[in-house]
Amino acid sequence: MLFAFTQLLLFQLAGEMIAHGLGLTVPGPVLGMALLFIFLVLRGGPGHELQTTCQNLLQHLSLLFVPAGTGVMLHLHLLADQSVPIAASLAISTFVALAVTALLMKWIAGRRSEA
Amino acid sequence: MKPHISELWVYLATSPLLWLAATLLAYQAGHALYRRAGSHPAANPVLIAIAVLVALLKLTHTPFEHYFDGAQFVHFLLGPATVALAIPLYAQMKRVRALLLPMAVALVAGCLAATFSAVWIGRWLGASPAVVMSLAPKSVTTPIAMGVAERLGGIPSLTAVLVIVTGILGAVCARPILDRLRVRSHAMRGFAIGLAAHGIGTARAFQESEETGAFAALGMGLNGLLTAALLPLVI
């Protein structure tokens, strides 16, 4: 558990260092995920410890968004003043993103399997 | 020699312990309610926890900065958790390879659709420029979205909130929408959910199946990378 968590932090650290060092707009943790993925491909899979630690961490992934979400209290006025454009924009664009992505993927995969 | 209750409050209010505990309790209360409601997506545990915490903070006149002193320990785990998403991704590598082309096309189209529909609708309905720029990266995970919003001239902390609302919306609506569109493949459902609704959608996708969750993690990660690289150029 301890070693696996250290590994995660080290991959994140490596990601942060690359992102900051090269002035990339991609955040460190996402690069860290890419690095860990490459590491897993090279090593042929995660060890038992890393596997269970990650599963435990991801089991309550949505908890980790609560602190940032509570920041809504800083913007209640702004949200109330512009509630219509914000609500419409979020609702419609979430629908559009879901539909475009899923349907396009289905369509292309379907065409390929027919061909 | 009982200490006065207000002294106790002063002590607790200055330590990070109180709000850290409150964050964990509020989330578990949210989760219990969600279970009670038969896992109905509208009873989203994140939404319930945020509502409870905001109400508590308002009632006790606690500033957000103060709350965050405690809650930052939970917030910090977002980084290692993002890295950990490589594990489910790796587990689905074979499926990923088979779907590489449809995924690449859907990724670019989905990323642009999410961004431009949000920006145009916001503008059209009269949102202020700072709000429009805060809306642009709302489909990607919080740390990326905040960084992108800052570069575009948006308000990062507002973006964090919009991102979370988007995630909750996606988590709540994805299932009925994808069912209606007759998208049945777990991989495609997951990829769309992760792309449109980042980590909160991904958390929800894992409840559908391991495969849905893994593809959601992939959609979230790739959209994060693409949005961070592309948005400062195209907006």
- Report Rg of chain B: 19 Å
| Main sheet characteristics of chain A | none
| Number of H/I helices of chain A | 6
Number of spatially distinct domains of chain A: 2
Distance between the termini of chain A: 48 Å
Helix and strand pattern of chain B: HHHHHHHHHHHHH
Most strands sheet of chain B = none
Structural class of chain B: mainly alpha
Greatest interface: A-B, 75 and 108 residues
The strand count of chain A comes to: 0
Question: What is the mean pLDDT of chain A?
Answer: 91
Flag low-confidence runs of chain A. none
What does the average pLDDT of chain B come to? 89
Helical content band of chain B: over 70%
Oligomer: heterodimer
Query: Element order, helices and strands of chain A?
Result: HHHHHH
Shape, principal axes of CA atoms of chain B: globular
Count of separate DSSP helical elements of chain B: 13
Instruction: Specify the overall morphology of chain A.
Output: extended
Strand content of chain B: under 5%
